């Protein structure tokens, strides 16, 4: 669940629904790849002001529900997520590079949508959760923000 992020000169709740597609729409996401991608994302949120509220996949693409701060544009958030996850996934498993025919993990494009806190946050969480229903959805990650760690 999202929280108000208090900074020195602003208070914000900025939520984005991102969809990133695997290169060539290859079906590369399985339980093992899913788990590694989740761990990479959780490490990423320790270094950047991007918090993953929900992560889910449907075989050839991944849905992220993220919260961030106003100093990070949606484009910057996507660039951070796609570049770091691609680098870490290729370092983890060389076979991914072969199955994707080269050195790119994600397609160049992406989908981003701003999400309101009241009502639509839950709607988007349910949408991400319902991805891949015909293949039995497995939630990779769901987190509730804490005020103090």
Describe the structure using short key phrases.
149 residues, alpha+beta, Alpha-Beta Plaits, two-stranded antiparallel ribbon, 4 helices, 7 strands, 35% helix
Secondary-structure map with pairings?
Layout: E1 5-6, E2 11-12, E3 14-21, H1 31-47, E4 50-57, E5 61-68, H2 74-92, H3 94-99, E6 111-115, H4 120-129, E7 141-142
Determine the strand fraction and express it as a percent band. Answer: 15-25%
Order of helices and strands: EEEHEEHHEHE
User: Quick one: overall form?
Assistant: globular
The CATH superfamily is known as: Transposase IS200-like
CATH architecture type:
2-Layer Sandwich
Level-1 CATH class name: Alpha Beta
Q: Uncertain regions: pLDDT < 50 for 5+ in a row?
A: none
The major beta sheet can be summarized as: 5 strands, antiparallel
Q: Give the helix tally.
A: 4
Strand order of the largest sheet: 6-3-5-4-7
CATH topology: the name is Alpha-Beta Plaits
Gyration radius from CA atoms, angstroms: 15 Å
> How many structural domains does the protein architecture include?
1
Structural class: alpha+beta
Architecture overview:
With 149 residues, the chain is of the alpha+beta class. The protein has helices spanning 31-47, 74-92, 94-99, 120-129, and strands at 5-6, 11-12, 14-21, 50-57, 61-68, 111-115, 141-142. It has a single domain (5-132), classed as Alpha-Beta Plaits (2-Layer Sandwich), CATH 3.30.70.1290. The strands form 2 sheets. A 5-stranded antiparallel β-sheet has the order 6-3-5-4-7, sandwiched between helices. The mean pLDDT is 87. Helices cover 35% and strands 23% of the residues. Strand 4 and strand 5 (61-68) form a beta hairpin.
């Amino acid at each position: 669940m999202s929280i108000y992020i208090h900074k020195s000169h602003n208070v914000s709740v900025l939520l984005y629904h991102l969809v990133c597609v695997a290169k060539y729409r290859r079906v590369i996401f399985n339980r093992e790849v899913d788990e590694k991608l989740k761990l990479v994302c959780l490490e990423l949120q320790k270094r950047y002001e991007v918090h993953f509220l929900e992560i889910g996949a449907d075989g050839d693409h991944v849905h992220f529900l993220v919260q961030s701060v106003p100093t990070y544009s949606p484009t910057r958030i996507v660039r951070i997520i796609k570049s770091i996850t691609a680098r870490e996934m290729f370092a983890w498993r060389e076979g991914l590079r072969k199955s994707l025919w080269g050195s790119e993990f994600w397609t160049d494009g992406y989908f981003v949508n701003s999400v309101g806190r009241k009502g639509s946050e839950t709607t988007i969480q349910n949408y991400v959760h319902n991805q891949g229903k015909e293949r039995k959805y497995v939630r990779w990650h769901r987190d509730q923000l804490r005020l103090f760690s």
